[in-house]
Amino acid sequence: MLRLSDFEKAKCLMNCEVARLLEHKSEQYKQMSNDSNNHTSQVFEKSLQYVKRFRRFSNQDAVKQVREVLSRYQLAEYELALLGNLCPETLDEAISVIPTLKTKGRLTMDSIEKLVNDLSMIKKFE
């Protein structure tokens, strides 16, 4: 299994979750600022634009559903975030982009395929 040292127990977020957090923070900055010239930092804005561009889900209900569905499987946090960000469309694609999914004894090929299908259904109905 992949070793992430200090980050092994860290909670990983999908791009869609980060986008939601940054959008909320951006709104807070706007409400707190009486000065219309007061802007957020360039790094903040670029980060927000990045996660908005690469998020796979924009509907908040879909984001919650993705996390709930993926949490049912025995996934490491980084695997969950990668699946939510990449949304592989086939079993082979999922295994090739996240090879740790086929670690012996954790998930069967059938469960990985079901996981991919579950993601596809959520994406389809978003």
From TrEMBL:
<comment type="similarity">
    <text>Belongs to the eukaryotic RPB4 RNA polymerase subunit family.</text>
</comment>
<dbReference type="Pfam" id="PF03874">
    <property type="entry name" value="RNA_pol_Rpb4"/>
</dbReference>
<dbReference type="GO" id="GO:0005634">
    <property type="term" value="C:nucleus"/>
</dbReference>
<dbReference type="InterPro" id="IPR010997">
    <property type="entry name" value="HRDC-like_sf"/>
</dbReference>
<dbReference type="InterPro" id="IPR006590">
    <property type="entry name" value="RNA_pol_Rpb4/RPC9_core"/>
</dbReference>
<dbReference type="GO" id="GO:0006352">
    <property type="term" value="P:DNA-templated transcription initiation"/>
</dbReference>
<feature type="domain" description="RNA polymerase Rpb4/RPC9 core">
    <location>
        <begin position="5"/>
        <end position="126"/>
    </location>
</feature>
<dbReference type="GO" id="GO:0030880">
    <property type="term" value="C:RNA polymerase complex"/>
</dbReference>
<keyword id="KW-0539">Nucleus</keyword>
<dbReference type="InterPro" id="IPR038324">
    <property type="entry name" value="Rpb4/RPC9_sf"/>
</dbReference>
<protein>
    <recommendedName>
        <fullName>RNA polymerase Rpb4/RPC9 core domain-containing protein</fullName>
    </recommendedName>
</protein>
<dbReference type="InterPro" id="IPR005574">
    <property type="entry name" value="Rpb4/RPC9"/>
</dbReference>
<dbReference type="InterPro" id="IPR045222">
    <property type="entry name" value="Rpb4-like"/>
</dbReference>
<dbReference type="GO" id="GO:0000166">
    <property type="term" value="F:nucleotide binding"/>
</dbReference>
